[in-house]
Amino acid sequence: MPTDNTRLNPGEGGDLSRTTQRVDDGPKTQVMQMDVGGGGPTEKLLGDANPMPVSAASLPLPTGAATETTALAVASGLGAPADAAAGSDTGTAGVVALFKRALQNWTTLLARIPALVGGRMPVDGSGVTQPVSGPVTDAQLRAAAVPVSGPVTDAQLRAAAVPVSGPVTDAQLRADPVPSRLSAYNYPISTANSSTTQLAAGASFTGDIEAPQDQPSLSILMTSDQPMTVTVRQFIDLAGTFAVPDIVFYVPASANFARSLTINGNFLRVIAQNTGAATTTTFNLNCAFGSLGDSDSTGTQPVTELPLVLTGAAAQTAVVNNILAPTAGAAGLSVAGYRAASVQVVSTGTGGTFIFEQSNDGTSWVALPVFNAALVTGVPITAAITASASQIVYTFPIRCNFLRLRIATTITGGSIRAFSRLSTEPWTGAAQLVASNTAANLLAQVSGSLTATLAAATVRAGFLAGAGIWYDDTSTALGAGATFTGTSRDATVTATATAFANAATYAQEVSLSAEQDVTFTLALEVSRDNTNWRRVKAVAASAVTGGAHYAEIVHRPSWRYWRLLVVNGAGAAARTTAGSIAKAI
């Protein structure tokens, strides 16, 4: 292996470096002299065969330089790739374990971030109060509940109309007074139950079943040049499977109709039928919902009565089931909800009959008792009535579901027509006449031995009074210092010639009185055996203005006998009168 010198930077006159060549024509390797182990410089050719020994311990390392010990400590702190994620953020764990825990938390956090909407991240401000700028639409309010903190000022409320959905709590209302006013009533028109399509004779308009739109009343307006029957059908369900009783109105031709009524059903539909003989030309049915009270065509809202007024078909003569409705026919008149009626039958006929009838099922009919309103003591009429030239009003209570006025036999010599008024108030007749009111039937038998009649006599039924017997004890003037002692009286009223009508009756009270022109004393004495007497009451006479002297004793006896005494004073009397009465009260 030849060794020689090689000039460095030959163009610049560089220094010579000792080199060697391992292989002929191969690259040259620089030869360096090193003092290894303190034995002086030695030439060494470094390579695989001659590695350079290095000892870290013998190197002059700077302060804080890494050593094998510190390098091992650093490796332990970093951890191994197989280390599990740390159990907490503050526990003793390697960097690898803590980094794995951080990556897991980041994965959880990413899962909680909502997807972008329109390239933006949506923000839920429900946890804190969010300032709102500008009016909030009803759709925005209904999207989700938005809590409001603090009172809302009048100016904020008036800045723009803010419809509120859902109930407002008492606490929210009381937080701060909020002035309010009703700006308008809401009367939504029912397009499903309104129509202007003209109806042929006998044809009907049938509306769709709909909810009343949270309104308590239904308003019906209708015009028609033909007689109409308007039916309000109410249901529990939208399908119309569960129906409640109908409300029916009968409207004469060209009378037009306006009515509002309370809605009880959850759902309803309106049906209008042309009961005339020709196609309508002015038919217009308009239905709306609102908060109107019940009212009639005049706009009156009565407290108790809301009558239905009907004009029956004109010039009726042929046998027919019902002439009460604007169009005569077979069906009865629905009177559910009404309590009384008056029907005026205007007749020019002189023959034929008609009769009032009632039914609950609309099929089975029985006679209806009616009363002629012109008679003070009305007699119920249940038989067929013979037509005559008259205008009689018949009144009667309604206790059925259906009613009809039937022509039983053909009216001759003219025709009849009915004008009816159905009332929601109870019926009251002018007077009631006792059935079978003959003299014999009005005799009344009283219990006991007494028979009383309503004929003129001393014994009168209905007159009650207590029996009494009066005694004229004396009218003889008393001398000075004299005493009048009256007759003994028996409380059983049997010791005298006069007795009570009933022998078992006793005097319950006795009244004594006396009058003189001079002073005296009135006394009452009683006895158990009519022999031994005891004075129990004594009253000195009192002077009477414009008169003389008078005394009176009222006593409820408990002993059988009593008597009256007048004890005169020092002066003689010019007149003395005394009397008593026993009362069986």
What does this protein look like?
It is a single chain. The chain is mainly beta and 585 residues long. Among the domains are: 186-301, Jelly Rolls; 308-430, Jelly Rolls (Sandwich), CATH 2.60.120; 467-584, Jelly Rolls. The protein has helices spanning 68-78, 95-112, 138-143, 154-159, 170-174, and strands at residues 3-7, 16-21, 28-30, 32-35, 41-44, 204-206, 217-223, 228-235, 243-251, 257-262, 267-274, 284-290, 308-311, 333-334, 340-347, 351-359, 366-367, 371-372, 385-386, 390-397, 402-412, 416-423, 467-474, 483-485, 489-490, 509-516, 520-527, 533-540, 542-543, 549-555, 561-568, 576-584. Strands 13-22-15-20-18 form a five-stranded antiparallel sheet, with no helix packed on it. Strands 14, 16, 17, 19 and 21 form a five-stranded antiparallel sheet that branches. Strands 23-32-26-30-29 form a five-stranded antiparallel sheet, with no helix packed on it. It starts with a strand and ends with a strand. The model has no long low-confidence stretch (mean pLDDT 80).
Helices and strands in order:
Layout: E1 3-7, E2 16-21, E3 28-30, E4 32-35, E5 41-44, H1 68-78, H2 95-112, H3 138-143, H4 154-159, H5 170-174, E6 204-206, E7 217-223, E8 228-235, E9 243-251, E10 257-262, E11 267-274, E12 284-290, E13 308-311, E14 333-334, E15 340-347, E16 351-359, E17 366-367, E18 371-372, E19 385-386, E20 390-397, E21 402-412, E22 416-423, E23 467-474, E24 483-485, E25 489-490, E26 509-516, E27 520-527, E28 533-540, E29 542-543, E30 549-555, E31 561-568, E32 576-584
Antiparallel strand pairs: 1-2, 2-3, 4-5, 6-11, 7-10, 7-12, 8-9, 8-11, 13-22, 14-21, 15-20, 15-22, 16-17, 16-19, 16-21, 18-20, 23-32, 24-31, 25-31, 26-30, 26-32, 27-28, 27-31, 29-30
